[in-house]
Fold:
Amino acid sequence: MSVLLLAEHDNGKLSPATARLVAAASQLGPVDLLVVAEAPAAIAEAASTLSHVRKVLVAQGQSTAEALALTLESCAQRYQSVSANASSVGKDVIPRLAAKLDIQPVTDIVAIAAPNRFTRPIYAGNALETVTDPQPLHLLTFRASAFRPVAAGGSAPVETLENSVTSLARLLAAHRNQSDVPDLSTAQIVIGGGVSVGSAEGFQLIEKLGKTLGAAVGATRAAVDAGYAPNDWQIGQTGKIIAPDLYIAIGISGALQHLAGIQGAKKILAINTDAESPLMKLADVALVGDLFEVVPQLIAELEKLGVSRPTG
Structure:
């Protein structure tokens, strides 16, 4: 059972999420990785070094949702599964492809029980369902954070698609926030701040701890709505879904919206003055105290111990 996987990339670089997607897709069979970009050479070269990749297919062109769906459609009949990340790109492309092929996609997969049995969260992450897909061609999106990345060290051949697909849609501009911190969706350690941090200046304390630990920084919806943190830091049902090895929740009570976004976290450390808050009861380690006293002490102790993890 062969799999065609759409590679994630941004600003000319292969996304770390792709290694996690390969880990998921390789459970179904040999993986061919599709790279579609205006300048795909460097991305394809990085993709070819991932283990478990059989070959890298390259199509030069704009990576708009319309063009991606058309390119996937032109290749789909050679595979038993066509898959992508459950990101904004995948959520845009796979439904388009499903409509063209008249196939029901299976989305947000977090575990694979068999080549046609998949587990996915429902009810805002409050339950998991396992579904069987009887269709001859499976259209899938994987939640990258639920899978461990494959290692580098591969040497897959790179093959250029001869019949490139074009679309009438054109990408006019892309705007992004410049940051040197890890991506929330794939970070091993995430520091989250809630509205109790009190201000955008207060969030600098969260960011300082994040830099010490080489962690990504996130925020609750309430903190984002209050203007304490940017929108792309939002964790939760309406924000990003995370699954780090360690999640440090600072001044967060644990609203259902937020808990839906952190269900994949392996360990949770919560710091809060309210010992009865939902997240403090859910946490593996709960530290009762004022965040403005505890966090500086934690940073000082880490610095004293010489703890300093590079970001990325």
